[in-house]
Write a structure and sequence with these properties.
The protein is mainly α. The protein has helices at 14-20, 27-71, 81-95, 101-114, 118-133.
Length: 134
């Protein structure tokens, strides 16, 4: 009876393979390798955090732009489904999934709920990006 992993060759970890092949011959290359590995590992582990920060900021500002369009200079919005429908249609056609009418309405709601905390949201998003890049 064949084993489950039969035919699958186990590839050694890249850093181990380099060391096994005696490619690392001096401390300079080892330092380059260590710094490169740390950078790539950090980037991969922080990708989700960065994507989340960008998504929050994008949703907040799209909601803001929709409200500004609805208000057109007045203090109160003349809320209309037309703006949400138009925004959703345009964004979906331009960028694909993720911009359904309900998603765009949620962005609008998000902005309305937190518009008084715009500076905090911006700083939080920037802070998350800076932390991820460290």
């Amino acid at each position: 009876m064949p084993e489950e992993n039969e035919g699958i060759r186990k590839v050694p970890h890249f850093s181990q393979k380099i060391m096994d092949d005696n490619v690392i011959k001096n401390d300079v290359f080892q330092n380059l390798f260590d710094k490169s590995k740390k950078l790539i590992d950090s980037a991969r582990s922080n990708m989700g955090q960065m994507a989340n920060a960008i998504t929050v900021l994008t949703s907040f500002f799209l909601g803001k732009y929709i409200i500004e369009q609805e208000q057109q200079g007045s203090d109160r919005a003349k809320y209309g489904a037309k703006d949400l429908d138009s925004s959703s249609s345009y964004l979906t056609e331009e960028y694909g999934r993720g911009f359904s009418r309900s998603s765009v309405a949620g962005m609008r709601q998000f902005y309305m709920a937190y518009k008084d905390r715009e500076d905090e949201i911006i700083q939080s998003g920037i802070g998350q990006l800076e932390t991820a890049l460290e």
